[in-house]
Amino acid sequence: MSVRSDVLLWAQRVLAKSGAPAHQLLDVRADAPPDVVSDAFQQIARMAHPDLHRSNLDAADLETVTSAYSRVAGAYQEMRSARQTTSKIKTVGTNEPPSIVAQRLSGQVKAQTPSAGVPQGEAPATSSSGGPAHSMNSRALIYYRKAEAALRRGDLRNAVMQMKMAIAGDPGSTFLRTALGEMEKELSKKP
Amino acid sequence: MSVALGIDLGTTNSCAAIATPTGVEFILGPRGERVHPSVVAFPSSGGVVVGADAKRYRLTEPHHVIHSAKRFIGQNIRAPLVQLALTGVRYRVEEGPNQQPIVVVRDRRMTMPEISSNVLLHLKRCAERQLGTPIKDAVVTVPANFTDGQRQATKEAGRLAGLEIMRLINEPTAAALAYGFGRDRQQVICVFDFGGGTFDVSLLRLNGEVFEVLASEGDFFLGGDDLDRALGEVLAAECNRMLRIDPRPNAALMMKLMMGAEAIKCHLSDNDAAEGEIDGLEMPGMPAQRLPFQITRKQFEALISGYVSRTIEVTKQVLASAGLDARSVSEVLCVGGSTRIPLVRQRLAELFQRPPNTAINPDEVVSQGAAIQAGSLVGNLTMGSGMGARDAVATSGHSNLVGAGNLVLPQVQAKRPILMDVNPATLAIHTAGGFTERLLDKNAPIPIERTRVFTTSRDNQTRVEIDCCRGEERRYTENEPLGTLILEELPPKPRGELKIEVMFRVDADGILHVRASDQTSGARQEAHLQVLGAPVHEDPHR
């Protein structure tokens, strides 16, 4: 009985915090390190995972718990992906200035976002997409850096070639493909 | 206490089990078999035949034997991969409403969930006969990368079979559960599930009773069927060359060769060469012919190495998305019949620098996990249901659950396992400029819910369409569309003032629910998403 009311109280508290920042739903500090965040989430799962309460809660209460747990999972995803972007930047971690391609790319996106369309995100589209200098494998990264260097020299043709090599190294990367698209577009503008 | 069935509904074979105090007990078929072919036959003599018996009609009536239905369930028939897979089957499939595939046998038209429900019903009946009690509840496993439509269609199949599907769980997760339940393990494991029609690989962190999926990848058009087909094509070419008969247009002949290919494949898992002949190749107006063959394991491996490399690539990908190194994985579980192929095991051992765990039964472990989860959900789980008791036989133990229960067994109430599974694909909506706004990431824990507030982009806009899609791409058109929600008759307001709240929720079954509501107007209106490819009943008046 007490377990039952505990989890319901917790769920109602979470639902009342609707609109609060992610870390408050997980009951951790905003700058909590990744393992603290994931421990906090596992702790919540051990207590409140809806599967544990399926046989002892009625349908309405179970829905309350499921809904609360789902929101906390959403908050966990938010904190984790923010963390992933930062840690990836760290691992890629050279002290070079931010990549030219990336700058161009994000500038492009921002320029396009306010144009008409339905519906328009309140947050800029770049917010959740993950940083561009991201999880490509080492082979792709080598060619990507070469492409950047070529771009800095202004050798667009060479940059395109290096970029294609990078894509061959990491065919799944959307970022590389988009960047290549941008470069090819620019290349076609020049005589 | 009620009994709930755990069912592994496979492409080629299915398996069912229940958790009992003495271990997991398998549901046996009419001839005592634990593994039930997922084959449904509609013989000319009438009626419906399922399982091992149905397989026998493959030669005499290939057009009336429905196999590999899982490859088409909940799929859009126009998808290129579906069209490709259709070339490998001998029964007739047509397009039905909502672009779903419809099987046509003589004058009967059946949806894929209807076909699969026959298999589920067969398992349910076998279980009821074995346990002597009616069964209503079940946990069914699906490949980890099954889409929304496929999951909904699988649930529909359960409903048609008179089973309440309490939960769909992912096959690799079920295997991990069978491996780790009651063992209090602390480790990271990789589950490599290479079955008859689908391939999945998942990384899990086991932490006592918590099974946390770190990442999952897969390919639902890669399996033993493809290996059979590759070998079958070789046999067909050989048949054409040696016997001067082209078997390809002849369904019965092709089926015979495919069955031969499957047998050769299985033989080569234990032997270095296969030699023999396929007899009884009948062509109209000719005496039966025999096709001699001689295939070494090396030749077979060369034939399938492309498929195997693909599985290894996907495994590397899953390690990358979990941010893990192959060395941090301390156990590799082989699940699915295709992992018996020595080449697969060898390539896995090379990747992980350790031999994979082959002590588990690759055909049965998934249904064991499903049975444990089913027992847990009905609150009926005791220690000893894990893999250690995998060969538990039917004892009077189960009557303890079912009947009056005078028998005293040491029953330690087990800690209920907590499965933290993941969302199989990134889910997003269409925003301005043709881009997408991600709401739920791939590999995020489920059940999960996220809400975002959007606003209108034109003055006095009274209608908003919200296109939902799945996929990683930033451009909307490069992703797979899921469906559109429409909010109409919104109050005219200057742009940016109307707030539209969009909620994405993926439930514990991995099924997406989207709700959009207008927050500003007093009359909140809501719209729900009908996912494309989800089962829709065929209009009988059509």
Task: Break the fold down into its secondary structure elements and pairings.
The complex is a heterodimer of chains A (191) and B (542).
Chain A: H1 2-16, H2 22-25, H3 34-48, H4 50-53, H5 59-92, H6 100-112, E1 120-121, H7 138-153, H8 156-169, H9 174-189
Helix pairs in contact in A: 1-5, 3-5, 7-8, 8-9
Chain B: E1 4-8, E2 13-20, E3 23-26, E4 36-37, E5 40-41, E6 49-50, H1 52-55, H2 57-60, E7 65-66, H3 80-86, E8 92-95, E9 101-105, E10 108-111, H4 112-131, E11 137-142, H5 148-160, E12 164-170, H6 171-180, E13 186-194, E14 199-207, E15 210-219, H7 224-243, H8 251-270, E16 273-281, E17 289-296, H9 297-322, E18 331-335, H10 342-352, H11 365-377, H12 397-402, E19 418-420, E20 427-430, E21 436-440, E22 448-455, E23 464-470, E24 480-487, E25 499-506, E26 512-518, E27 526-528
Helix pairs in contact in B: 4-5, 6-11, 7-8, 7-9, 9-10
Protein model, in words:
The complex is a heterodimer of chains A (191) and B (542). The radius of gyration of chain A is 23 Å and the shape is elongated. Chain A has helices at 2-16, 22-25, 34-48, 50-53, 59-92, 100-112, 138-153, 156-169, 174-189; one strand spanning 120-121. By secondary structure, chain A is mostly helical. Chain B is of the alpha+beta class. Chain B has 12 helices and 27 strands. Chain B has helices at residues 52-55, 57-60, 80-86, 112-131, 148-160, 171-180, 224-243, 251-270, 297-322, 342-352, 365-377, 397-402; strands at residues 4-8, 13-20, 23-26, 36-37, 40-41, 49-50, 65-66, 92-95, 101-105, 108-111, 137-142, 164-170, 186-194, 199-207, 210-219, 273-281, 289-296, 331-335, 418-420, 427-430, 436-440, 448-455, 464-470, 480-487, 499-506, 512-518, 526-528. In chain B, strands 1, 2, 3, 4, 11 and 12 form a 6-stranded mixed beta sheet that branches. Chain B has a 5-stranded mixed beta sheet with strand order 18-13-14-15-19, with helices on both faces. In chain B, helix 6 packs across helix 11. At the A-B interface, helix 3, helix 4, helix 5 and strand 1 of A face helix 9, strand 19, strand 21, strand 22 and strand 23 of B. Strand 1 (120-121) of chain A pairs antiparallel with strand 22 (448-455) of chain B.
